[in-house]
Design a protein that fits this description.
The chain has 936 residues and is of the alpha+beta class. Helix content is 16%, strand content 33%. Helix 5 (224-233) links the parallel strand 12 and strand 13. Helix 6 crosses helix 7 (291-299). The longest helix is centred in the middle third of the chain and has 21 residues, at 449-469. Residues 780-936 form the F5/8 type C domain.
Length: 936
């Protein structure tokens, strides 16, 4: 059964203000969750000061069913207790406070009626067991206001205070004020309220000195965390500042957005570097989000200091240079000043850049500005809607199957959506909600973010009503009850800071060869409809086009008018349309690593970020590659790498393998052709296809004709086409055979959809593992379904040479991942037992103290569902150097699960180095993409 309190506790948002502990040494993700439950509270004991007592929402010792919400503290001034129910009042929040002496006091409650007409979030305050004679959150105003609870006689000593929810519909309380002055009225303005709170909480007048840093990174999401880690690893003293209690941003334990990237649509395209390292940790500990991984990596860096629950709201500048920032704690309201040399804005909403006076853009450019076909005729401030999410699995809502009919009545404040086809949506998983529950893009989700969140509540409850009472499949939902709709707001778009260049859709589409490239994108052009769920027949997308692997220039990653400000995340310098291509988590993580690296070089050389791009660009790119961040066209040219000129040999090498042998490793279960089946494969427009081979099995007693169709597709799940570009037939004989189809035709399409028609007594074999950016389909032209990443046993003529040679020399060719021409890895012979070794012989003896190894972790698996231990990844290995005629061990590793490993050791003078692979995680071959060797 669903346990709401347990769920909230697991994601760190119930029972106390969370300062989530990093988890080291846990064997499972559940161990990590249990560790998170050991929260350290930020609550305080309210004191009587100057005739008044200020009680924060955070001061309640037991939140009950309320959650502590700090998302909008920078806008409305505080964190609040929120009764996030589903129409059933949540459990009471409770606390005790002490009066120093008996006296009458007037009580004020700061609350908000979030829907003025219907007053959905009403609650009561219970003092010493007696309900105050007023319902709060019901005032004739939809602003945050102080509501008068009247005068109460209080004795000296302890008193109990309770927030009692009346509706289960997101009532909210910020603070409670007790005053001995019956005529005192607390100020309504946010700034005046902050001054009063600071006085009554006796907060320090000046911000605390938080220290001086080489780099300050604002925002600890998928871009900010890698930026901070990259800079710290390169020697900078780094402060990572986040207004959340956990690291990870949209991909955190709070929200749980998947780490999507180019690997969804392109072969061997999974992002490397810190992105790969973190997602390997996530998979290793069976976490569904990135808080554990980023927390673990941050705690390992002595140069990195993490400031949690801190929102930067002030910037100190000298001319166009930022000197320092000031941040307030969203739980305790204390302020801290941090001095820095370089700054990175990875806040998403670009608050650091805004306070620093950086040029920015909000909304959509006109079509004439950049020649983007999906841009509107006239520029506007429309942005893509966010979603409400709850981690750790990125759930839009939580339902429970009860076994009995559960009726649902739409709240008056929720939207009433029409029946299909006017609604224009297809719902897959009603149990967990869907991403297209979105508001109209005209909402101001920057300065009216709380109202935007509330608009999503109206939509979500309206959608549940649609599912229960209008949807054509509503009978499937009859026994389901809504348990939880999360209040946490995952944004997709807001401000974008402007750099020396603005990346546009046409540039990405034609793969502009930017000389200053520092990252790549491979996600589709995924721009959501500007009207959100109200777009009707037009559907949820403005566009969802397939895109090539494109480059992201460094000039998009630093401010054009603030000299020491870089940016990473969805606030980089791109157009609104191009943002649909680069905004996903894995892509932004690589941008984060790039700007962290650039900041390190800027500090090292005393230069601005712009100066690094002008005179140290090659060093920046080579430093990224050295740390496993690759992009197309980049090759190892590091003169300090002794391995580049080494002669390689190995205990064995994989020569070209027969096609049947390679295919045999990939063959899965047979799938009967009781319906049509097919697969969608990426294609190069204009390229000629000579032939196809399909592995099939017939149980019929005679040979049968099998029909194959080829259609065009726009993406790996596009099954909309009903036009056959080509129809071929083949002959399948009894038994198991490879059935050939001669094609000999060019296709002007981004994807080819290959279909084999229904045929009795015949099966088409499935393919093991993931496929390069494609999908498996089944059904008919009445209805097709697809599984992304799946495939059938279907091979093009180019794949007939699968399993090409993987010589020892490939480990030093400078390209640490597969390309169209080569696997670019050494692989031992498949018929040779472990251990296997790879040896490097240098031109002359040298002092060696550092070795970098890059292993195969299956770059065709998606970031969010990669196995913990890919079979081909090297598990146990050793490194030896030859010294005075004998081999001396310098590295020994057991249980490896990472792609990129760096080992330093006491320097030894040698002319030979050998890497021993003792075991993999299941594969029979030892595989190494790259070996680098340095003096230190």
């Amino acid at each position: 059964m669903f346990n709401r309190r347990r769920f909230l506790a697991q994601i760190g948002l119930a029972g106390s203000v969370p300062f989530v502990l990093s988890a080291f040494g846990e064997e499972t993700y559940q161990d990590y969750v249990e560790k998170v439950l050991g929260f350290r509270k930020a609550r305080r004991d309210p004191k009587w000061v100057d005739g008044s007592m200020w009680i924060n929402a955070a001061d309640f010792s037991d939140y009950g069913g309320w959650v502590y919400d700090t998302q909008f503290a920078h806008l409305m001034g505080s964190g609040v207790l929120l009764a996030a129910g589903t129409g059933r009042p949540v459990e009471d929040a409770k606390m005790m406070f002490t009066m120093p002496e008996a006296k009458p006091v007037r009580i004020w409650v700061r609350a908000r009626n979030w829907d003025r007409a219907t007053r959905p979030g009403r609650f009561q305050v219970v003092l010493n067991g007696k309900k105050l004679n007023r319902e709060f959150g019901a005032a004739d105003s939809d602003e945050w206001i102080w509501e008068d609870a009247g005068i109460q006689e209080l004795s000296a000593g302890m008193h109990s205070l309770v927030l009692h929810d009346l509706t289960g519909y997101y009532g909210r309380c910020d603070a409670i004020l007790l005053s001995e002055d019956p005529s005192f009225v607390p100020p309504s303005g946010v700034d005046e309220m902050k001054i009063l709170r600071a006085r009554l909480m006796q907060l320090p007048e000046k911000p605390k000195d938080g220290g001086s840093f080489d780099l300050i990174v604002a925002g600890a999401g998928p871009a900010g965390a890698p930026a901070a880690l990259a800079a710290a690893r390169l020697g900078l003293k780094v402060a990572l500042v986040t207004d959340r209690p956990v690291l990870g941003g949209n991909a955190s334990l709070e929200l749980g957005v998947n780490f999507n990237g180019a690997d969804q649509h392109h072969p061997n395209a999974r992002e490397g570097g810190i992105c790969e390292e973190a997602t390997r940790i996530r998979a290793r500990f069976d976490a569904k989000e990135m808080s554990l991984a980023f927390g673990r990596l941050a705690d390992e860096e002595n140069n990195l200091t993490v400031f949690k629950n801190k929102h930067i709201n002030k910037v100190y500048k000298t001319g166009s240079i930022i000197d320092a920032v000031e941040a307030f704690d969203v739980c305790t309201y204390e302020t801290v000043r941090l001095n820095g040399k370089m700054f990175v804005d990875a806040t998403g909403d670009a608050w650091l850049g805004y306070y620093a006076g950086a040029d920015y853009r909000l909304g959509r450019e006109s079509q004439s500005e950049y020649g983007e076909k999906y841009a509107p005729a006239v520029a506007d401030n429309v942005t893509m809607s966010g979603s409400l999410l709850a981690g750790p699995k990125g759930t839009f809502w939580l339902t429970e199957r009860t076994g009995v009919d559960v009726p649902f009545q739409r709240p008056a404040w929720a939207y009433d959506f029409p029946a299909n086809p006017e609604f224009g949506r297809s719902l897959k998983w009603f149990q967990t909600g869907d991403w297209w529950f979105e508001y109209d893009g005209k909402m101001d989700d920057l300065y009216e973010a709380e109202q935007a969140r509330d608009e999503l509540l109206r939509i979500y409850f309206g959608m549940w009503n649609w599912i229960k009472n209008t949807w054509e499949r509503r009978d499937e939902a009859r026994s389901y009850e809504m348990e939880f709709i999360p209040p946490w707001f995952a944004k997709r778009e807001s401000r974008r800071l402007l750099g020396d260049h603005v990346l546009t859709h046409p540039e990405a589409l034609r793969v502009e060869p930017f000389e200053d490239a520092v990252a790549y994108a491979g996600w589709g052009l995924d721009v959501h409809h500007p009207k959100g769920v109200f777009s009707g027949r037009e559907g949820p997308f403005m566009c969802v086009d397939h895109m090539p692997i494109s480059l992201i220039p460094y000039r998009c990653c630093y401010s054009r008018n603030v000299d020491n400000l870089l940016m990473a995340g969805r606030n980089i310098s791109v157009s609104h349309v191009a943002l649909g291509h680069v905004r996903v988590q894995s892509t932004l993580a690589t941008v984060g690593q790039a700007v962290g690296t650039a900041a390190a070089l800027a500090v090292k050389y005393g230069m601005t970020p712009r100066g690094i791009g002008q005179s140290r660009l090659k060093e920046l790119q080579q430093t990224l590659l050295k740390n496993d961040q690759w992009f197309p066209g980049l090759k190892n040219e590091d003169s300090a790498d002794l391995a580049r000129t080494a002669v390689c040999s190995a205990s064995s090498e994989q020569a070209s393998r027969p096609f049947d042998e390679v295919a045999g490793d990939l063959t899965g279960k047979p799938a009967e052709l009781t319906s049509g089946r097919g697969c969608i494969i990426p294609w190069e427009k204009g390229k000629k296809l000579s032939s196809l081979l399909a592995l099939m099995e017939s149980k019929a007693g005679v040979g049968q004709r099998v029909n194959l169709r080829i259609r065009a597709a726009s993406g790996p799940q596009d099954t909309s086409s009903r036009e056959d570009l080509l129809i071929k037939w083949g002959q399948v004989e009894p038994g198991r055979h490879w059935v050939p189809f001669q094609i000999n035709q060019s296709f002007d399409a981004d994807y080819l959809w290959v279909i084999i028609d229904k045929l009795d007594s015949v099966s088409w074999f499935l393919r093991k593992g993931t496929v390069d950016g494609g999908a498996r389909t089944w059904g008919s032209d009445w209805k097709w379904s697809s599984i992304p990443g799946g495939s059938m046993m279907l091979f093009t003529d180019e794949e007939l040479a699968a399993g090409g040679s993987s010589p020892a020399s490939a480990a030093v060719n400078g390209i640490p991942r597969p390309s169209e021409q080569s696997m670019n890895q050494w692989a031992s012979a498949a018929d040779q037992p472990m251990p296997q070794w790879l040896q490097l012989d240098f031109e002359k003896a040298a002092s060696i103290g550092r070795v970098q190894l890059t292993f195969d972790t299956d770059l065709n698996c998606r970031n969010f569902d990669t196995p913990a231990f890919p079979a081909q990844c090297v598990r146990d290995y050793r490194v030896e150097v030859e010294e005075n005629g004998r081999w001396v061990p310098v590295v020994e590793e057991r249980g490896n699960f990472q792609r990129h490993r760096i080992h330093t050791f006491t320097a030894r003078r040698t002319s030979k180095l050998r890497v021993w692979v003792d075991a993999t995680h299941g594969d029979r071959q030892a595989r190494i993409y790259e070996v680098r060797v340095y003096g230190s």
